[in-house]
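ok so i was messing around last nite and threw this chain in just to see what happens. nothing serious, just curious
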Amino acid sequence: MTYIPKSDFLATIIERGFLADCTDLQALDEALLKGVVPGYIGYDATAASLHVGHLMNIMLLRWFQKMGGKPITLMGGGTTKVGDPSFRADERPLLTPDAINANIDGMGRVFAQYLDYSDSPNGALMLNNAEWLDGLNYLEFLRDIGRHFSVNRMLSFESVKSRLDREQSLSFLEFNYMILQAYDFLELNRRYGCMVQMGGSDQWGNIVNGIDLTRRVIDQEIYGLTTPLLTTSDGRKMGKSANGATWLNGEMLSPYEFWQFWRNTTDADVGRFLKLYTELPVDECNRLGALGGSEINEAKVILANEVTGMLHGPEAAVTAEATAREVFEKGGTGDDLPTLELTAEEVGAGISVSQLIVRSGLAKTGKEAKRLIADNGARIDDAPLTDAGLMLDATALASPVKLSAGKKRHALVKLAG
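result:
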């Protein structure tokens, strides 16, 4: 018989599709019913912003807090210096301490939109594992912690095994990562009473390591919970697009572009994404996801508004929707479109439209821009663009020029001033 959770948190995340696996569902459920349970997710500071691929687990922490749990966002100030080898083909580039700290600041601004970091009993904590990792004595760590790890078992974890099976190098530095992550869970339990680690299902082995270590060293019962690795209905990894990662930081991706990402959700994903990325009631998510024909487009607008409003604020969502309706329904330019501003010196005697397509982010390379034009996929001020060598001078750019790649991606180019 399948266990049916009684706690609000577990019941909610199961109904909404967040749960992939749990080390002991019933014991965790009983702990949640007894009082405030601290739980954490770890984030290495490898970029200046989180991206859409992180958003499901950020929403998991948000539900955890709303249902009485105490979320901990653990920033990997220490572990980022090593790099997580999980399911990677190569070693991560090593970052300087200054770069790591700058990335943590950028990521922290995103978390502040989703979690309450107040002094309330279940107020969120933002911690940095450099607090306990930076000062470790290597010999003491090997003696006290390393002796609990079996190399044979570590080699059997899929994240390591897959790398070795492909005969790709795995450095000793990276091999230490899973020990450090396990040690994080032990220290969080010691210092903050943390009882559960959450993360994507690719982190299962690392989570189990931390549970085993904590039981061995301080005989504490703690738990692990994972979310499914999410792909879109067409098989793409969530958050990845032709233009790279879909960033959550407004300086790296405009609210309009973020809104447009969600508006472009495929029909088959709408209901599932509403349950994972919004707080709309499940019945309403199912109703909207079941719509057909042109009605599903309005469901996508609701999805885009809800997700954008939570991250960037309701006004940003309203503005993005208004811009989209102006661009798509009325053929306008839309003041909120991503904008490339050029100085008169940059324009000089003229600048090619192919270069403008690249610089505005609609293509990655000049070759890609020319192919877009050759395939009749580019437009300028809503008219077909057929000449890849077209030059625009300062006079042509005196008023904003709208460039389009396909039907859904647009940018403005104008002179600064």
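not much to say yet. The radius of gyration is 24 Å.
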